[in-house]
């Protein structure tokens, strides 16, 4: 049988003296000619080896798109925002060049694109102009530069709610926000002025600093092997870590450092600011937590109120999920540090409970999402003062936090902590525009440590990536066929299906449920408790499909995900990489499929440097399967189809390319509507159409 033959070849794979990337004929099954094989095999990659020796850490659960932090810093500090520190810092890489490509990004991370009224975007325009100048001034430190996206795009991104929107186009939709995000205040002009002044001060010095700091510093070697060998040869006990931390590390099951840990730990321990880039699933959390714990361990005990000690380490995560996960990791590492406490504060839980918890369990390390941090600063007695004790500030998923959606929040947090501190920023993706603005947080002599080696992609080579371009009306059937094939091939399947919006996620989950697949859904429209439960279930399970919006795109450490399917246009290149990064973690194998409609294939040019193979044939959908899917679609609730249609329209309307031609956009939306089995597209409220800039476009039905 061809599938068997393929599996056998895959089993031979590690025995061959070449790396997988040099063996496309073996690692990419669709080079085999049999038509049946062609139909199924591109989606049947099985892991052939596993190097894991350590237990998985607890999963994080929930996304948290935190609300705006307007004006709270002003109440904390009379002196205005922290003086911005500038300079590009020392660039340190295990490779010799970056692989930044033009992204054509239009996305907005992990938030739903539901309609909300537009907000004043003047500020965004102003900042955008500023940033355009900044970029032109910026130094050249990476080999292949990401093209600067004109700020007008970002202006559009922020049109709705004046924040957290990416992707241009009139009527851009806001993202999948948490409840606490809903009531954002308009931005004050005074604050804007301060921020602009800060930027001027910041970027005015940049050229000088660039010249001073572009020489890469040699990093420790990584004898662990190539880019996909996530472990180094260096053991934790070879580093100057306190004995108590070492015991914690050992109990956590870690012996050797991962490559990013090996590269960053000595630098961070010296007290330097670090911006680190390392592939998904390679241990960045421990890389910033361990040296941060050392800072607390070495600090003299506070002579202040012991129940409310100064917060020495503040870790900011963009989502509740990541914050919970980071705090869980910290708790593991602190096992033998009885005097050091860690707490997590996240949205979606009761503030009073967190206040009580913090009082009962004093902490020097705080992991927080930005919105909840603001809540505590405003409402928890003594909290702002405690923040003035911060010695280490960590920005996890730094590029996301510095993106326009969070930038203002982060600037305010920076203003609320001491200027004299160490700052650590980590992510799997560091677009060039983020490099250009990282000085908002980092000292001028910071080091940029890039563990993505030259000649390697930002994704893992042990993850087989395929793209499939097929008409929109086939997507539901194709998704079903792909899943059925994968399930037939791997009893231990564990699949993530990423959809464009929360409402489309709900629709797809319901459809797959109707088709009797074992499926769960997770997106921002689900209550927190539900999401926590589903997330935990998926973490522990095998034989399960999780249909998800981008709430699961970044950082989530689900073990042993066998396949990631991305249906429709990913928000941007970074989001594609982070979503794909849910599989192939800790050196394991995995598989990724990107399913696009023909008019979405422009996205492929933004990821052309990644090893995404074109599927040679579109899997065939036999008439029985087609009928089955149609029947299942007819059972999907009408209101879910209506909501999916509106969300779909909003998502693609906010895309610079697709949303540019409103007539074409509506044609495509109605194609989507037909693919759900609807003869007539659902009606949309007039107000909504107006806000989207879609009033009187033929083909739309208004109500
Ligand atoms: N030194 C180590 N040895 C073995 N496993 C490790 C080590 N350090 C971390 N891990 C494990 O590696 C996994 C991935 O770590 P982590 O979630 O921090 O990755 P990441 O690089 O932050 O990924 P992402 O970019 O997706 O957020 C976790 O399960 C963690 O427990």
TrEMBL record:
Coiled-coil stretches are none
Q: Compositional bias (Basic and acidic residues) at which positions?
A: 78-117
Annotated transmembrane regions: none
| Disordered, as annotated region | 78-232
So what does this thing catalyse?
ATP + H2O = ADP + phosphate + H(+)
**Segments forming domain DEAD-box RNA helicase Q:** 234-262
Q: What Gene Ontology terms describe what this protein does at the molecular function level?
A: ATP binding; hydrolase activity; RNA binding; RNA helicase activity
Show the ranges annotated as biased composition (Polar residues). 197-211
The protein's matches in SUPFAM superfamilies, at most eight in alphabetical order, are given as:
P-loop containing nucleoside triphosphate hydrolases
Motif mapping: Q motif: 234-262
Signal peptide feature range: none
Q: Where is the Helicase ATP-binding domain?
A: 265-448
Q: Where is the composition biased (Acidic residues)?
A: 175-193
Give EC number(s), comma-separated: 3.6.4.13
Domain Helicase C-terminal positions? 482-630
Describe the function of this protein: RNA helicase.
PANTHER family documented for this protein? RNA HELICASE
Q: What is known of its domains?
A: The Q motif is unique to and characteristic of the DEAD box family of RNA helicases and controls ATP binding and hydrolysis.
**Recorded family membership:** Belongs to the DEAD box helicase family.
Name listed for the protein in its UniProt record = ATP-dependent RNA helicase
Organism from which the protein derives: Glycine soja (Wild soybean)
């Amino acid at each position: 049988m061809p599938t068997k033959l393929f599996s056998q070849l895959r089993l031979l794979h590690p025995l061959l003296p070449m790396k997988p990337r040099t063996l496309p004929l073996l690692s990419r099954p669709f080079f085999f000619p049999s038509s049946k094989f062609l139909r199924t095999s591109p989606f049947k990659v099985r892991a052939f080896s596993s190097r894991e020796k350590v237990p998985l850490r607890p999963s994080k659960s929930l996304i948290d798109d935190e609300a705006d932090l307007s004006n709270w810093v002003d109440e904390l500090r009379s002196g205005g925002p922290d003086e911005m520190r500038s300079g590009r810092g020392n660039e340190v890489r295990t490779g010799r060049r970056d692989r930044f490509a033009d992204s054509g990004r239009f996305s907005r991370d992990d938030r739903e694109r539901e309609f909300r009224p537009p907000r004043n975007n003047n500020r965004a325009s102003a900042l955008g102009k500023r940033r355009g100048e900044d970029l032109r001034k910026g130094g050249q430190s990476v080999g292949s530069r990401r093209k600067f996206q004109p700020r007008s795009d970002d202006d559009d991104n922020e049109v709705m709610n004046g924040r957290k929107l990416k992707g241009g186009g009139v009527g851009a939709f806001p993202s999948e926000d948490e409840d606490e995000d809903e009531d954002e205040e308009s931005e004050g002009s005074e604050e804007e002025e301060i921020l602009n002044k800060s930027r001027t001060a910041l970027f005015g010095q940049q050229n000088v600093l660039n010249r001073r700091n572009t020489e890469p510093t040699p990093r420790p070697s990584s004898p662990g092997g190539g880019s996909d060998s996530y472990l180094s040869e260096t053991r934790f006990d070879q580093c100057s870590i306190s004995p108590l931390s070492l015991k914690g590390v050992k109990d956590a099951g870690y012996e050797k450092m991962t490559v990013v840990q090996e590269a960053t730990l000595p630098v961070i321990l010296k007290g330097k600011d670090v911006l680190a880039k390392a592939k998904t699933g390679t241990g960045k959390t421990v890389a910033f937590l361990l040296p941060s714990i050392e800072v607390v361990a070495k600090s003299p005990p506070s002579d202040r109120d012991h129940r409310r000690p100064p917060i020495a380490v503040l870790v900011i995560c963009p989502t509740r999920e990541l914050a919970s996960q980071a705090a869980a990791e910290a708790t593991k590492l602190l096992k033998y540090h009885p005097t050091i406490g860690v707490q997590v504060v996240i949205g979606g839980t009761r503030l009073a409970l967190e206040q009580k918890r913090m009082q009962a369990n004093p902490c020097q390390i705080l992991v927080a999402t930005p919105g909840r941090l603001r809540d505590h600063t405003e409402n928890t007695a003594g909290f702002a003062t405690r923040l003035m004790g911060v010695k280490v500030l960590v920005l996890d998923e730094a590029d996301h936090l510095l993106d326009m959606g969070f930038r203002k929040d982060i600037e305010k947090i920076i203003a609320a902590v001491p200027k004299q501190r160490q700052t650590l920023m980590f992510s799997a993706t560091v677009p060039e525009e983020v490099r250009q603005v990282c000085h908002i947080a980092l000292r001028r002599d910071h080091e940029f440590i890039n563990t993505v080696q030259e000649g390697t992609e930002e994704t893992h080579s042990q993850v087989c990536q395929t793209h499939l371009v097929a008409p929109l009306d086939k997507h539901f059937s194709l998704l079903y066929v792909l899943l059925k094939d994968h399930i037939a091939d791997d009893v231990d399947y564990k699949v993530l299906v990423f959809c464009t919006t929360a409402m489309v996620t709900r629709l797809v989950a319901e459809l797959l449920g109707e088709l009797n697949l074992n499926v769960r859904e997770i997106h921002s429209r689900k209550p927190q408790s539900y999401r926590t439960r589903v997330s935990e279930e998926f973490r522990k399970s095998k034989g399960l499909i999780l249909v998800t919006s981008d709430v699961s795109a970044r950082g989530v450490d689900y073990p042993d995900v066998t396949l990631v399917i991305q249906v429709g246009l990913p928000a941007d290149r970074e989001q594609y990489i982070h979503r794909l990064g849910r599989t192939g973690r800790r050196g394991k194998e995995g598989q990724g499929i990107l399913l696009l409609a023909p008019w979405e294939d422009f996205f492929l040019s933004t990821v052309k440097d990644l090893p995404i193979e074109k599927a040679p044939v579109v899997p065939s959908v036999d008439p029985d399967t087609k009928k089955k899917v149609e029947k299942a679609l007819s059972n999907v609730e009408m209101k879910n189809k209506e909501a999916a249609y509106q969300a779909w329209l909003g998502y693609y309307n906010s895309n610079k390319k697709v949303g540019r031609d409103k007539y074409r956009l509506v044609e495509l939306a109605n194609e989507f509507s037909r693919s759900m089995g609807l003869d007539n597209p659902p009606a949309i409220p007039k107000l909504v159409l107006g806000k989207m800039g879609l009033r009187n476009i033929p083909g739309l039905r208004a109500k």
